[in-house]
Here is the input.
Amino acid sequence: MSAPIVAANWKMHKTFSEGMALAAEIQAQLQHKKGATVVLIPGFLHLQALSEQLQGQHRIRLGAQNCHYEPEGAYTGEIAAPQLRALSVDYVLMGHSERRLHFQEDSKLLKAKVSSALEAGLRPIFCCGEPLQVREANQQVDYVSAQLSEGLSALEVPAFERLIIAYEPLWAIGTGQTATPAQAQAMHSALRGHLSRITPQAAATPILYGGSVKPQNAAELAACPDINGVLVGGASLQAAAFLEIVAAFD
Ligand code: PGA
Here is the structure.
C-alpha cells in the first residue's frame, strides 16, 4: 500500500491571499519531513499560483474540487479536466455529497466525470457516504456499495489503480460528529471487499475517511487498518490543526 493521503478540502473558503498564506504555512512546516502525501484542494482561483509555489517538492500535491465531463467545449462557467492537468493538478474530487445535494450530481453524470478525469491523467477521489436515516436503518453498506457500483461501473480494470475512494457519512460532514473508528473501519473493510469483487486490482485502492476529522480523532482513525488517509474539511482551514492531522498519518 502506498503512503497515506491527507487531503484538505477548502470548499468555498479563503480569498486568494488567505489561501496562499495558508498553503505557505503548511509548506514551510512539511518541507523537510517525509510521510503522508498531502493533497491541497483549494477553489479553482488558487490552482495556478499554488502549482507554481509548490513546484519542485513532491510531498504536497494539488487537487481540484470538481471538473466537467467533456474535455473542452461551449460550457460557460465550467472547468475541464485537461485544463486542470495542464496546471500540474494531480487529483480531483468527484461526487462530494455537497455536489450531489446542491448541484444534483447523479451516478450517470459522475461516471462521465470520472472517465474524463482519468483520461486527462487526473486521479479521481470518488466520494460516497450514507445519510443519517440510512445509517439508522442499518442499510449503510448496501447504500454505499450501490454508489460505488453505479458511479464506477464503466471503469476498465487498470483505472482502479489510479482511483481513490473517500467514504464520508453525510451525518458526519461539518457536524462535529465523527464516525467512531469502529464504524469507519467496518465500512472501509466492507467497501474494500465490495471493490475487490468488482476486480481483484481494486483491493489496493486507497479508501480515505472524511467527516469531522480533527486533531483529536486523527490518530485513532489512522490506526485503523483499512483507513488509508483522510479528507478534511473544516479542520484543514487552519495550518496548525491540519498539520496535527498530517502528523497522525506520518
Ligand atoms: P468536514 O468536511 O471535515 O468539515 O466534516 C469533510 C468534507 O466535506 O470533505
Notes: The mean pLDDT is 94. The pocket of 2-phosphoglycolic acid is lined by residues 9, 168, 173-174, 210-213, 231-235 (CB under 6 Å).
